[in-house]
Amino acid sequence: MGLLDRHAELLGEYRGVQTEGADPFHIRMDRILSPTEAIINGRRTLMVGTNNYFGLTFDPTCMDAAIDAIRSEGTGTTGSRIANGSYSQHVLLEKELAEFYDKKHCMVFTTGYQANLGIISTLVSQGDYLLIDADSHASIYDACKLTQAEMIRFKHNDPSSLDARLRRLGDKPGNRLVVLEGVYSMLGDSAPLKEFVAVCKKYGAYIVVDEAHSLGALGANGRGLCEEVGVLDDVHFIVGTFSKTLGAVGGYCVSNDPDFEILRLVTRSYMFTASLPPSIAASVRQALRIVRARPELRQQLWNNVATLYDGLAERGFILGPEHGPVVGVHLSDRLLAIRFWRALLDAGIYVNVAVPPATPNGVSLLRCSICAVHTKQQLERMIEVMTGIGLQMGVISGAPKLRVVAGAR
Length: 409
Ligand SMILES: Cc1ncc(COP(=O)(O)O)c(C=O)c1O
Known about the structure:
Blueprint: H1 8-19, E1 29-34, E2 37-40, E3 43-47, H2 60-73, H3 81-84, H4 88-101, E4 105-109, H5 112-123, E5 129-133, H6 138-146, E6 150-154, H7 159-169, E7 176-181, H8 193-203, E8 206-210, H9 225-228, E9 237-241, E10 251-255, H10 268-271, H11 278-293, H12 296-314, E11 326-331, H13 334-346, E12 349-350, E13 352-354, E14 364-369, H14 376-392
Parallel strand pairs: 3-12, 5-6, 5-7, 7-8, 8-9
Antiparallel strand pairs: 1-2, 2-3, 4-10, 9-10, 11-14, 13-14
Helix pairs in contact: 2-11, 4-11, 5-6, 7-8, 12-14
Bound molecules: pyridoxal-5'-phosphate.
Pyridoxal-5'-phosphate binds at residues 111-113, 116, 137, 139, 181, 185, 210, 212-213, 241, 243, 251.
């Protein structure tokens, strides 16, 4: 048996997709024009699948900060911080992130994936219990594979399901660590965090919250869902990424745990990989200043979310359960999702297509992510184009529907 034979079924499906003339996994952006537009296949394309929630990738002050750091500290660190040392940009970024969250400690990672992988797998070990939401991101699932703690899944966004699992553990020895996400990356729904915190307190469980999709978008100061619902002091570890609202790459963890600093000497995804290039750390620092100084970007983001979500819901599309910076459009199967995605691209609109096994409950989705700097006209055009394709493909029918949106902001 060949080494790759076990992927034969997937390969067959993938070839089928390619013969449809659609290959969502090898898109080439010929030129990036702005946070909301690129040239793809020679065509000017509206970008609605970038996670670039504040549109900071082209912010001139972030770009200048990165360029200045390249000139003063070089293009890369060529090693990990425990081997090659910390650059001033790493130290300043950690200090500023800790201040932003009003926490004592911060560690930055080279990606958000590595932050989850390292922090979650290191906090628990044999004899402990790791309780995760069924819809958790791949980085959280992968962290579970790296630890000898027992992994227990509870129903998505269901505090009573978590309660039942913690109760079942009774007085077995071992720590309990619960991992939640502020906003879930496929459907854009947010965790009922207050209720989860109450359950965790009842059983003495520790909590990690991944604010990847909620940093900037939620909370009076943009600190995410923990700030929005007032549980910043009840959560033991917050992790997140620089690759979305902050427009770069990298990850972080903040905490008030007095022994936090030991994590630098035991977290393998921190210790055995090269640290962030100083230019990235510098642009992230500037992006963080913008998040703090320009709350109007958060308001613009939510206005745009309402425009797209409500517009699509009124046309009859089936969407994720609530307004969120990610709007997931349900389609009945994988092939339909890929065909719809291709038709949108041909019409000059780029979204993500998300199909099993990457999606919760085997759903097929067009995953749209909203940017504060999308214009109303851009989003209205998108609604019209999606409506045309949806009617043509029988995804929606002609009569507009008015839906009451539960939990809409
Ligand atoms: C919830 C969640 N956590 C972590 C990550 C990983 O972040 P990064 O892209 O910085 O590795 C992602 C990225 O998609 C995510 O959606």
